[in-house]
Amino acid sequence: MSKHWHELLPIDRYSVSSAGLIHEYDRKVITLLYQPLIGPVSIGLYMTLWSELEENRLWSQSSLHYNLMNTMGLKLGDIFQARSKLEGIGLLNVYKKKTDEENQFLYELLPPLSPEQFFTDGMLNIYLYKKVGKVQFGRLKKFFCDAAIVVDDYQPVTKSFTEVFSSGHLDSLYVTDESMEELKPEENYRFIGTTSAKELEGFQSTFDFDLFFAGLQDALVPKKAFTPKVRDTIAKLSFLYGIDAVQMQKIVLGSVDADDQIDEEELRKTARDWYQIEYHNDMPSLSDRIQPALYQTQMDGEPKTKEEQYIRQLEKVSPRERLIQLSGGGEPSKSDLQIIEGIMLGQNLNPGVINVLIDYVMIKTDMKLTKGYCEKIASHWARKQVVTVKDAMELAKSEHRQYQSWATGKKQNKAGARKAIRTEIVPDWMKGDPAVPPNEKEEPGVNKELVERKRQIEERLKNLKSRG
Q1: Residue 264 CB: number of other CB atoms within 10 A?
Q2: Is residue 354 within 8 Å of residue 343, measured between CB atoms?
Q3: CA 350, 351, 352, 356 torsion: positive or negative?
Q4: Is the pTM of this model over 0.85?
Q5: Across-strand partners of 106?
Q6: Of 254, 310, 311, which Cα lies nearest the Cα of 277?
Q7: H/E stretch holding 93
Q8: Which residues cross the membrane (predicted)?
Q9: 106-129 confidence digits (pLDDT tens)
Q10: For residue 355, what are the contacts with CB-CB under 8 A and spacing of at least 6?
Q11: How remote is the C-alpha of 182 from its chain's centroid?
């Protein structure tokens, strides 16, 4: 049974609002720039919610999530996953009000970044480049560019307001206090306007600024150089390239100009150069990141137990490297990387936590990544706010029976086994909600090394469960 039922039910009502006017041009930006990152289902949800707003209105009628499921032809779990991705990438704010009878949600649509903001973001543009490739990225860049207006040979001759208009009599603009109230919108109303795009959030909480500043001397880099914008850039670069606080000190020192200011462009370039030297790669993807130092629990000293060794191993490799290790050195498939990157973006889970997920799922599904199964567990971990490898391992142990039922649920149903009893009270029309796709059978002639690796991981999990 999927954990989204704990947060969202088909009978829950929702209304759609807009933080400001969203323009037709925004549709092109969302479709061409955001869709490769979060997928067509999330974009479809955004467009569906947008269509519920009447023209030039900021509010929609209230409706049931059941109606939204029918409109989009999706299960509630798929809608929940799509909603999470919209939240994470800054296109949706979600508000919830609980009453005795029902839960009510408010979905506030946010405009996308402008093309200029997107292509100069320093993170989203790199993920897009990695996702669509050099040729398509060049096409998109050209599509959202136009010739710059050169005014070097011109003189500005635009007239100001006071040059064109006059106020007339001195008392012509006098307005009483009572009349001033008439100029304001009525209570609980606001004027329709535009709003700025939402910046991506959460990066500074994942970077250890205390450790970072502890190793920097004021004589080398004055504290005033670390403006809020610079701090945000440092945190984003750390997230993007997997740079820890100690390594970031060296990168920042190489980006200070003659005026003791931190050049952000030089900072980005230095971080990119470091990544290319470290990983022999042009651009990073989400699956190339490692566990942030702030959430590593095995940094100091040598591991004393097998469990500590296992934790350190998962903290020091990226999800992509973990997939390579489990496949005996073979490159992971594009579909596997898409599953992992989709979860990392949508659920905002740390790379080390993703590594635990990979190990657990590979064992339960014959060394294959099953998308629905991965997303169910990841969604549960995200709601439990799992941030460390150890937390993920402990939760996997305590919820093992539940996760096992998710993995085998549909097979049992197909074999005519008795359906699991739902503990939540749900309408009759929601009973029999399809379970996770069935596990694929192991292909004949499986590589012996693959079988041995599977056995080793199973033994490791068994030891952990016996100790827990």
Answers
A1: 17
A2: yes
A3: positive
A4: no
A5: 15, 95
A6: 254
A7: strand 92-98
A8: none
A9: 999 999 999 998 998 888 888 888
A10: 291, 314, 317, 319, 322, 389
A11: 44
